[in-house]
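[job 4417] fold queue: 2 targets
>>> target A
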Amino acid sequence: MGSQTTRTGLPFPVGTDRVMDGDDAMAALANRLDGSTPGPFVSVPFSKAAGRVAVPVNAAVLGTAAVTFPAGRFTQPPIMNANITSHSNFYAVATAVTASGFTANARNADNTPLTATIQFDWTAVQMTSAAAAG
């Protein structure tokens, strides 16, 4: 087979490769990208999901909402990123994270009770089939 990229070691054909060897290069590339072939720069996560949930806050400083991931998406509790996009004085926290979902928490930073619906955006990622990080 031809050559490999310098940073990630991804295989690619060169001009002297035979056309019939192209399937080997494609298989090597696919295995490298999905993490089947070990290497330092597996760039495609095993699984990802993202979404937006409305978190109700009713005369309180904290509102919560249960979020369910798409069925079978994760095999491990994923790494979560969350932010509030509708109220600048609230912050987002994802708790009780499992492979099937999490609890979205929106909290008023100045601890003043209020009634509002807070827009909570989230992203979840699992890098390998066996672990969230990787």
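>>> target B
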Amino acid sequence: MKIVLKNRLLVGTAVLTLATGGLYGCSDFLDKNAIPQGSLDPTTLANKAGVEGTLIGAYRSLDCTPTTQANWGCAASNWVWGGVAADDAYKGSDSGDQPPINDIEGYNWGTGNAELYLNVKWRTVYEGVVRSNATLNLLKAVRTADPTQFSVADGNGAEGEAIFLRAHYHFEAWRMWGNIPYYREADTDFNKPNEASAAVVTDILKDLDSAVKLLGPAPRNGQKGRPSSWTAKAYKGRVQVYAGQYAAAILTLQDVRNNGPYGLETSFDKVWSGFQSNTNGPETIWAYQASANDGEPNGENANFGERLNFPYSGSHFGCCGFNQPSQNLVNFYKVDALGLPLALSSATWNASDAQFQAGDMTPVDPRVDYTVGRNGVPYKDWGPVKVTTGSDSWVRDIGNGGPYTPKKNAHEKASGAESGSGWQNTQLNSVNIHLYRYADLLLLLAEAMVETNDLAGATTIVNQIRTRAGATAQGPGTGASDIAVALIPDPANPLLRTNPASITWAKYEIGLYPVFTSQAQARAAVRAERRLELAMEGQRFFDLRRYGLADATAAISGYINGIGGGQEKTRRTYKQFAVAFAAKHMLYPIPQTQIDLSKPGGTGASTLTQNTGW
């Protein structure tokens, strides 16, 4: 991973971390290399360049590489865990490709197939933890041996980055498993038992507080892929909302909102984009810095974790048709006469099983066509999507994955972001993967306001998000200048925006809310807005869990068995075999492989304890 696009120096230093098998626990390093190519001992690494290279290695665990992981359970976006496991997406492709995801989608998480993906996710986040701690230990040794190697500010910055990364990786593990071991740089016992979920939260917040103090107000060296003190503070507020610490979260997030460097992009098309001018814009709080055409011969610094999630062979991209948006999600973008979510006012919002395609003038939120590829609708600037039963179809198997394709992760044709090398290079690009963006922060703040009964404050934030969403819609896409076109005010309703005459394939409408009148109404509106804004970004399942068992169960059960007049088990018949969502699904099972490995000396009782119900 690189910190800033096209910074070759930082790419080159990443190789320093690959040879330090003792530091990173890469026990099969020599097994996979019949002729060792050399190694770096601690003395060689004990300098500023060694520390910086080791730190870059810690960043690299944010996303997959084929040399360290066996499947897409490690994708930075969590598309398997946060999207396919929720109501946003189907696995897609066909039933025989990546079969472990079938079990994850069907809530059969205790199977050997599901274990394959769960174990990759566990290995990835704890690899990141170990690399972060290795950086901290090496930094301490270098600063002790030769204080001139780092200035105080630079040394503190490197320390703060490593601590922030450690907090991020533990947060990823906590969102998945809740009760996890927490490792710091002084730990030598790598068979630590799980901490209770609440204790993990305390540890994450402690690390984030340390990062806030150590980091400067701007990213070190001006490289925006590095966290600043504002990044750490924003992340702290995120953790506080997840933990239900609403009053504390409001104080934290209000500070970031009022005094921090972030803001919404002017239009939604700039949020997920391959254009370099849109990279690391004001909305980016924390992102995996994907990089293509940087000298890596296989394109592995690019968006490797997303490379399955492109339209199929009839399209320019050629493969692979995974992570297809669900019918439920597409229906969720329909709006009422006021341009507000139909799902909040109609008992039949989800009744249609028909493919929603170009020419259907049912009013919809304009974000649908920035999020979902639909038949006949322009796909950024690649021309209209084509969904047929022939070889020219952009969808691999309509019966298995439905007629829609993911869109946010795709690059624009005119952007130059496509990789020139690597397997199926047309799917590799330098579109950054947002791990946390400002719209997400604002909606977390709105959520905390609702839970503390500040309904006016929550209304203001939701309408701010919707105002930005109403700025533009997918345009004809015949060139870079018309990928997005401006929406226009409705003369009959100043709170409503709609599309100009140049858009002939859809009816886009989006309106604003009057001040919420009850906590229940506000809660429903904020939650709906999170889905509309963050769909297909790997957040949905974690949101449903955060809302509580009753809400998560109702959403997942309703999705499969019938909600809003429609049920997925008749749309995608394999869903009739899904296991009923229950309390145990509020946490993923800890991989049995990791439990078995946690026996001290390989014998006796395991120190890791399985989550309840698994």
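[job 4417] complete. Note on B: The longest helix spans residues 112-145.
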